[in-house]
Amino acid sequence: MGLLREGWRRLRSTLQRQELEDGLQDEIRFHVESQADKNRRAGMPPDEARRQALLRFGGVEQVRERTRDEFRATGLEDLARDVRFGWRALQRAPTFLAVAVITLALGIGATTAMFSVVYGILIRPLPYPDQDRLVEIVHQGANGGQLLASPAAYFGYRDHNRTFDAIGHWDWDSSPVTVSGDGEPESVTSLEMTHEVLQILGATPVAGRTFTAADDRTGAAPTVVISHGYWQRRFGATPAVGQTLMVEGVAREIIGVLPSSFRFFDYDADVFYPLQHVRADARFPSGDGRAIARLKKGVTLEAANADVARMLPLLIREFNPGFQGPLPRIRPALRTLKDKVVGDLGQTLWILMGTMSLLLLMACANVANLMLVRTQSRRSELAVRSALGAGRAAIARVVLAEAAVVGLIGGLGGVALAYAGLPYLLSLGVDDLPQIMTVRIDPVVLLVAAGTAVGATLIAAGVPLAQLSATGTPHSEALRGTRSVSDGPGGLCTRQILVVAQVATALVLLVGSGLMIRTFLELHRVVPGFRNPDAVQTFLLTIPRTGPLGGDENAANRERLLNTQRALLDRLAAIGGVTSAGFASGNDGLPLDGDGRQVSLIPYVDGVPAADGLSRTWEIQNASPGLFETMQTRIVAGRGLTWDDVVTQRQVMLVSEGLARKEWGSPAAALGRRISAFPANPGSEIIGVVEDVHHDGLDQPAPALIVNPPRSVPTAAFVVRSVRAGHADFLVDLRRAIASVHGDLSIAQPRTLGAMYRQSMGRASMTLLLLGITGALALILGLIGVYGVVSYSVSRRRREIGIRLALGARRGEVSQMFVRHALVLVGVGVVIGLGAAAGLTRLIASQLFGITPLDLPTHLAVALGLVVAASLASYVSAQRGSAVDPIEVLKGD
């Protein structure tokens, strides 16, 4: 504590310098005047009394200096003086200053922007209480496919678990619903959930309440909770609790308004209403939905997985009455809420963060090389300082001060670049980045940027200081003149090492960029299962319910729903320029959405269980006639669905080509088979086989798919083929046609299938672009390093060049001498870089598609290209440097 107080006292005195000087002057005057008064009282004349007082006090200036040294932080003053001197010196070398600052700003800016994304998505805590205890309940099928949590899982785990404090269930995805009433019908995003979900996430309403168990009961009064944004947008922030909202034709009482800070993961939902499950209808593992649970205190994720594994056999038998035969091979795969939110994006972001860090190191190496050259060129000046009594610390401060100026300006420039570049960086993957609202440049990011700038300053100053410390300052040689000053082998070796390191790093980053380019090309070669997607308009429509959809007593309601959807198709197909139209039931039936419904079962084929006894995880789609025709998805065997199949409720289905080949060897062999989940159920007949469609992304295998006739659900994803798809006037025609069938419908999420195709490649595109930019910058920095070392070598050997030219050497031969030396350095860097790339590119294996990290053509092409580029850079530098007049050089010597 004593040292801290002393340090603070000295710092304060340094900052309050004028006050210290005034106080010191008053103190000296007081002592001198007091002694002079004593002398006068002793009988001395006034002038003599003052003179004797000054003699007795001692030298005033000496006392003033001793007092300053005692009270001030002289080291800081000296450093500040050196920084001012360094700034003036750098102003006399504008080219050096500009190159060093721009280089450092690029490295710091790229690293800061990328770190802000990593911090906001991966590091920053989620805005939910007890986030470390929150988990999502997920299962994994026998083939590795992910199974969501069905209503049966919610009931069973709620009743039988030993590790959860609470468990909640919500509909597997957000759905558009139509809110009608005053004015035009409005399409908003909704979520259905049990009462526990908002409680687990700690959502405290700003008005009213959230759901209770009473709201979950079948037949309970319809209620709704609205988001803060929707409350402001629709009600103008006026009291809304107790009012009625018409949602899908159902009058729902608004019981609560959520706070503005609450966000339900990455769902941009406006309205939330209770999910009223019917336990008697629940089956396991069939069904849709997601489940979240809060672990009891002290319970680990491993213990929770073990508890779920214990309950799985109980649920299979409890929710499948009369079930016989082997149990489906399902295992729990619970994951933390952070993993649920981030998904597999974490590895991609850390890889990009690593590449930006390598770029920063290259920038630091480049600036260190520049500082080393500048320090070597100032050896005469430093020798003069040393000869006049400056110690090693004083000389080190000179170098450190210049590096600090470069680091400060480069750091500020880097932060400015990060502020400017972050919005663009986020726009590259806006549809694929979770928690994107939390990504910003905040004090934590600025602190990291400041630390990065300090680190870069120390690296830039440390290299020349280490060189000076190793070689010393040869006074006699340096003071004779700059022409005779030798760098020594150490300085040359240091610069060569830095160039080799830059070349090796550039090669690693360029190989990564090359691999991503190859991946992008391979993805474009994948046949997605549809054609000409930019001519396909997609959108969601939700038809308001007039009653429940389940049970035989509601057959009329189901028929009304399907008739409305069919009438919509007929009206859409009649629009000018439209060639076909179709829909998929629900909002999960379109390609590349990655949201397909899955079922895990041991299938019965023609009443006989699968011979291997293993459960299958298949994706289910409910499609109308015309869907595959509109997407131009081929029927490879049999026929497609017809409206006669739908109207007569025939038990028929289509299967994907991959499923047919895996189960029966060929598409034709699948036709006529009947598939069911239970032996007592006759199942559905396979009437056709469709080509594989990549529902989960182009980089994922096409799922095994079962296509059933359309379901009686209010929401459907419509597809319309027209050359006008994506145009605003076409959307106007679509809305007009829809309104002619049903006046309370509103289009949601309009986009072309081509836009969905490009979005599915968004992460690969983002990774490719960022790695490409990083690789290009690394190449530029590497070439600058090669150019600089050749240029400096030429400048230091001008006398030798003049002698060689005077003795008859050709300029080309002189240039080749320097180019050969540069190529040796580049060759060493390439060899080291290839070895490093062979190891480091394995880290991006999960980002690649169709190639391996050790793709030989990519590695060799990058290495060859780098050698050629470096050869050109060194040749240009050598040609410029060797263009000297030997007479002038020898005359100047």
TrEMBL record:
Residues 98-309 form the MacB-like periplasmic core domain. Its main location: membrane. GO terms for cellular component: plasma membrane. The chain crosses the membrane at residues 96-122, 349-373, 394-424, 444-466, 497-517, 768-790, 818-840, 860-878. It is a multi-pass membrane protein. It is found in: Cell membrane. Residues 356-469, 774-878 form the ABC3 transporter permease C-terminal domain. GO terms for molecular function: ATP binding; hydrolase activity; transmembrane transporter activity. This is Macrolide export ATP-binding/permease protein MacB. It comes from Luteitalea pratensis. The lineage of its organism: Bacteria, Pseudomonadati, Acidobacteriota, Vicinamibacteria, Vicinamibacterales.
